[in-house]
Amino acid sequence: MQTQTLIIGAGLSGLSLAAQLEEQDQKYLLVEARDRPGGRILSERFEGASFDMGPAWFWPGQPRIAALIERLGLGWFEQYSAGALSFEDESGRVERGRGFSSMQGSYRMQGGLAALTDALAAQIPQQNLLLSTPVTALTRSATGVTATTRSGQAIHAGKVVLALPPRIASSILFSPNLPRETQAAMTGIATWMAGQAKALAIYDIPFWRTAGLSGDAMSRRGPMVEIHDASPANGGPYALFGFIGLPPQARQDEQRLRQAVQEQLVRLFGPDAEAPKALLLKDWAFDPCTSVVADQQPVYAHPQYGLPQAMANIWGNQLIFSGTEVAPQFGGYLEGALEAAENALIRVVIEKV
Ligand SMILES: Cc1cc2nc3c(=O)[nH]c(=O)nc-3n(C[C@H](O)[C@H](O)[C@H](O)COP(=O)(O)OP(=O)(O)OC[C@H]3O[C@@H](n4cnc5c(N)ncnc54)[C@H](O)[C@@H]3O)c2cc1C
Question: Which atom of ligand 1 is nearest to the CA of 197?
């Protein structure tokens, strides 16, 4: 196969770049390792509603995502936050109304964030988006770059955009080898939220709301450390989700984790929480399309992201990095995925080889 620009990774960044190349009538292919687009954006369907198991929020002051949602004609709503907050101490004692910060003022997508990536994917002709197609090797030649996929297919392109976490990209076989400092820069960039896991409990009735609780909770006991309402914009089924605070190595016994999550929900929100209709779990730390072993180490603060010098102008600008981790202003966030795609577009279209 032959194309002008090969984009590797159909997360928000790769999809956004592909949609812009499509609009400009450029030749491109978008290849994705998973059997679905979206990357870290993952909305699970249950009884007609969508529940975000990856990112859930965007925020005021993020111009690209706001403009994209408007352009695609999609709906958004404010995170539910009416009512008292809950706090659980180390012994499991619960207090109400403690003044920690909730996610009040954050925005969520109607239909989950996959509504955004599905709408972008719908703008890309079917023959330009190859799912279940992991790229395993990239080889530079006099005429461009050849990508080899896991099934042995070769795709020749003038330029290649790596729209995936740099740590994940570093497992691709590059020929010739990337400079040592480029490889070190790639493996040194922690993938945002890659070590996280989420639990989400679905109920017919939002019993916490009727009890005057927002669903926001902080816990020093765990296993969930931060909990929020995850219900759809209107109607049910309703849901609470929490970030698991246990380190990845300590949360691999799924049965035990499920049991501990349910017990904690009862401690925090009462006996109505005992029997969720469904309890969904997603552990990103063990998902090889998002995380490497190094991502199992905790990241305590938001890293300083951006494109390191060592990752700029690689292979005479035929190898271009996108993905949220290389966004200078909003790195790590959904907004950063769009920011990085914007910067990659300039390198693809304007800067000549
Ligand atoms: C649990 C969790 C919660 C989060 N919460 C928020 C939030 O509330 N708000 C927010 O702004 N951000 C949040 N984030 C971060 C947000 O998800 C990311 O900023 C964003 O989704 C990154 O998009 P991306 O396109 O840069 O990368 P990705 O979504 O990681 O896309 C990369 C794509 O490349 C594919 N790929 C990997 N290897 C290959 C290969 N060899 N060949 C082909 N394809 C490959 C992957 O399958 C993936 O689809 C959260 C992330 C997680 C995990």
Answer: 1
Flag whether pLDDT at 100 surpasses 70.
Answer: no
CATH number of 43-112+195-286: 3.90.660.10
Higher pLDDT, 301 or 237: 237
User: 92: left (phi > 0), else alpha (psi -120 to 50), else beta?
Assistant: left
What are 161's strand-pairing partners? 7, 320
CB 80 within 8 A of CB 105: no
Which stretches of the chain are DSSP H helices?
A: 12-23, 63-71, 114-122, 166-169, 180-188, 207-210, 254-269, 334-345
C-alpha–C-alpha distance, residues 7 and 25, integer Å: 15
> In 10 A of CB 233, how many CB atoms?
14
For domain 1-41+113-191+289-353, give the CATH number: 3.50.50.60
CA of 179 from ligand 1 middle (Å) equals 26
Q: Which ligand 1 atom lies nearest to the CA of residue 172?
A: 41
Span 281-306, pLDDT tens digits: 999 999 999 999 999 998 888 999 99
Two tokens, residue 98: 């403690």
d(CA 271, CA 275) in angstroms, rounded, equals: 9
Establish whether residue 8 lines the binding site of ligand 1, counting it when its CB lies within 6 angstroms of any ligand atom.
yes
Q: For 306-332, what is each residue's pLDDT tens digit? A: 999 999 999 999 999 999 999 999 999
Question: What is the reported pLDDT for 111?
Answer: 97
For 173, counting Cβ atoms within 10 Å of its Cβ (0-12 exposed, 13-18 middle, 19+ buried), the class is exposed
Task: Provide the residue ranges of all domains of the chain, joining segments of one domain with +.
Answer: 1-41+113-191+289-353, 43-112+195-286
Quote the crossing angle between the two packed helices 63-71 and 334-345, to the nearest 10°.
Answer: 80
Tell me if 337 CB under 6 Å of ligand 1: yes
Q: Six-digit token pair at 19?
A: 């949609």
| Average pLDDT taken over every residue of the chain | 96
Cα-to-centroid distance, 192 and ligand 1 (Å): 8
- Top mutation candidate among 151, 164, 226 for ligand 1, by most atoms within 8 Å of CB: 164
| Mean of pLDDT values over 219-225 | 97
| pTM of the predicted protein model | 0.98
